[in-house]
Amino acid sequence: MNARGTCWITGLAIALIAELFLPELLANPSGPKPPKTWPQPYSVQRDDASGVLTLRTPFYVIEHDLKRGGAISRIALTHGKSPNLLLQPIETRIQDEKGVAYADVNDASPSVSLTREAGNERELGSELVTIISELKGPEGKASGVRVKTTLRYRWGYVKVRKEFIAPSGTRIKELCPLATVLAPSLTNYGYREGKTEDEGMGAFSFGSNVWGKLRPETPAARPLKTHYVPRSMILVDPGVEGIEWFAGSDLKSWEKGPAGRRGQGQCLLHCNTDPPGVTLVVSTLWSPESAVVLPDGFTLDFYFAVPIRDGRAQRPWLHTTFNRNRGDWVSTEQIRRWAERGIQTTHCHHDGDYYRDGLFWRDGAYPPYPDMDRYDKVLGDCREVGIRTATYFSNKELHPSTEQFQKHGQPWGRKDRKGELRHNFYAPGAEFGAQMCLRSGWLEFLKFSIDRVLKNHPLTGVYYDWNVALLCCNPLHEGKTADQQADGHWDMDELIDLMEWTRHRVGPEGLVIVHNTTVPMFATENFADYVVATEWGYGKWKDQAPPLEDLPVEWSLVGAVPRGVISYGMLDAESPPRLHRVFAIYAALGGVATWPASNEMIELAALLKPLGEIESYRFADWRNAAVRLSDARAASAVYSRPGEAFVLLANLEPAPREITCAIRPEKLPCPLARPVAAELIGLLGGGSTPDSGGNASSLDLGQLLGDGAKVKLPGDSVALIRIR
User: Fold this and answer.
1) How far, in Å, are 194, 364, 537 from residue 210 at the CA level?
2) Which of 211-220, 326-335, 472-481, 575-584 has the lowest mean pLDDT?
3) Distance CA 82, CA 80 (A)
4) Separation between Cα atoms, residue 279 and residue 214, nearest integer Å
5) Cα angle at 332 between 328 and 336, to 5 degrees?
């Protein structure tokens, strides 16, 4: 690739060919394919005749409309459902002091330039798109305000900077860097609130997503309106696709805006009727009654991200953990048994003095144990049987006993308005560590700590806990002195930096596991091999499981990354034993796995052995349109590839049931034109063990493709049906 890394294609015929065939060529290049977690270059095409600038990867495409302010006008996933997640371009607008709106999309001839930002020996470079647009009225009237937009295209996300250039004294009532209408399928959303201690929020609030759901059929249902701009928002078509927006680390411009006061912005999310879709508006200033002066050069930093989906089904992720356990390290024999049961990964997790012997892995300390040779023996034994290994790191905790905390704990720490640190305890007198902020020297020390462990031990990769950006009020992180008051920031830019660094550090085949309960995030998960979710924040299962549609959005999110759902966040001592099996069945129906892998999940994974290479299939979860069932407490999931499909059919009640199952082969992820046979090849439940397929029984194909075949299932059981 040359210095600019671009290819200019202006011929209409060539552009049409590229539009039709380039996604397939990119998705199936000659030679070995890099994993989807490994950053790859964009293909850049500019067609001035049609006015379209296209940036494409094998997994998604983003287009700019060069005749409408250079605004992003199309975002689509190669393996998604919607041809465009945007029904209207993402516009930037203001309202002047008379309430007249001016937007960049009304500029028919913006200045648009492209450059290639070179990388280094560790990282791929970026594609830079720079746009200067006039904010104009619908009839072309100029406002006198211009916006310079710089978009840095990275793997799975785009970092955007908006700089507003205005004549001195320009007064406005609204400043909106983001307004669009999204596809109507993006009905599930979560947002992290923009409130702080000033509005009564906890000083060290984790900032979990506030979840909601819009229903296009009832446009008045549950709209979102807040005058405190959220720090992030994720919108999801569950199991299919999604998009997210989030602010950069500097929050002052977002939370105080041109008015210089909190609570003067506006975020709107509601159903749109014409066109039918989801309206999203984020304004850092909304002042319908009085205008304020727009500072010249007022700047906002934010991101867009999409999930990187490769369209392939994922093997259930079977994971376990180990630690020193008073020196009784996990044995070679136990590791062999793990492998025999299908365990794929494990990690050392020992961040507290659970055994009261004083020997545990203090965050930021090294070496943690006097017998590190035994630690290495476990890693070597795992490698011998094909189990990939990682070690726990907390992205936010540094133990007070370490030399680094003594020297740097205060300048690196995550602080509240009073300048106090938060210490995380798991029992009285027993501490995990003090919370740090990545927007400090803590980031580089954390990288050093991780690199030190990876250099000295035969690990495959890392496990990251606290893999989230958090609000911090340490003034040192904003270039101020300790006695000044911070405006407030979070460490989002630095978290993205850490994830990119980590993927390059472990390599394309390395192992990256992240834990981000209640705050799933496409931009960080795109670099991860596995994600851990649902540790806390959701209702307990006491007497029965909730309906599938009431599961947390993060349960499977959009199916882009294999996920582990933590059962102990929802099940406890009061939960009946059968719910543990139902929990595993729910996981299988969503294409995820229990974490750590339960016996029930291991058995369900074994039921799938007749499929062979699961990655050769496409998966559709319990929301699939191919299977129709007679019973509301029955559910299905589909694994589909050319020529055959497998259906998981589940009875979610404790009593046996006869379920009528009808399959629509044309609605399978890989449609079957002329099915010739169907058979029930496996059953788990009712005292049975996973069937390898040796005791298959035929099903009436005509009934199955017609009004439905009747299948008798024991309580809390799963059957595996093959149709070809």
Assistant:
1) 11, 32, 11
2) 211-220
3) 6
4) 11
5) 130
DSSP letter at 329?
P
Residue 104 has pLDDT above 80, yes or no: yes
What is the pTM (predicted TM-score) of this model?
0.94
> How many whole angstroms separate alpha carbon 606 and alpha carbon 690?
6
Report the alpha-carbon distance of residue 722 to residue 724 in Å, rounded: 7
CA angle 363, 529, 561 (to 5 degrees): 120
| Length reported for the chain | 724
- The angle that helices 403-412 and 442-456 make with each other, rounded to 10 degrees, is 150
Place of tokens 């020196």: 327
Containing H/E element for 497?
Answer: helix 492-506
Output the pLDDT for position 151. 98
Distances in Å between the alpha carbon of 8 and those of 15, 40, 44, 47, 388? Answer: 10, 19, 8, 7, 43
**60 vs 43: CA distance, rounded Å:** 11
Nearest to 468 by CA among 141, 256, 231, 155: 231
Residue 668 backbone phi and psi in degrees, to 5: -65, 155
Strand order in the sheet with 43-47: 43-47, 52-56, 60-65, 71-77
Q: Specify the DSSP class assigned to residue 685.
A: B
Distance CA 362, CA 251 (A): 32
Whether 439 and 491 have beta carbons less than 8 Å apart is answered as: yes
- Look up tokens 């704990």; give the residue: 409
Angle, vertex CA 13, rays to CA 10 and CA 17, nearest 5: 100
Band the pLDDT of 91: cuts 50, 70, 90: very high
Q: 7: pLDDT confidence band, cut at 50, 70 and 90?
A: very low
Residue type, 575: S
Average of per-residue pLDDT across 412-425: 96
Tokens of 634: 């029955």
Residue 101, φ and ψ in degrees, nearest 5: -90, 140
| Per-residue confidence (pLDDT) for residue 217, from 0 to 100 | 66
pLDDT digits (tens, 9 = 90+) for 177-226: 999 999 999 999 999 999 999 999 999 999 999 999 997 666 556 789 99
First-residue to last-residue Cα distance in the chain = 45
Other CB atoms within 10 Å distance of the CB of residue 124: 18
Q: Which two tokens stand for residue 572?
A: 């406890």
Residue 581 has pLDDT above 80, yes or no: yes
Q: Count Cβ atoms below 10 Å from residue 577 Cβ, excluding itself.
A: 7
Round to whole Å and give the CA distance between 378 and 609. 28
Reported as a pLDDT band with limits 50, 70 and 90, residue 33 is confident
Identify residue 220 by its one-letter amino acid code.
A
Q: Are 401 and 395 in contact (CB under 8 A)?
A: no
Between helix 372-384 and helix 332-341 the angle, nearest 10°, is 30
703 has a pLDDT exceeding 70: yes
Whether 637 and 589 have beta carbons less than 8 Å apart is answered as yes
Q: Kindly report which listed range (85-94, 194-203, 453-462, 551-560) carries the lowest average pLDDT score.
A: 194-203
What is the pLDDT averaged over residues 37-60? 97
Number of alpha carbons in the 13 Å side-chain half-sphere of residue 477: 35
d(CA 408, CA 645): 57
DSSP H/E element including 499: helix 492-506
Q: What is d(CA 680, CA 426) in angstroms, rounded to the nearest whole number?
A: 48
Cα separation of 359 and 390, whole Å?
19
pLDDT at 691: 58
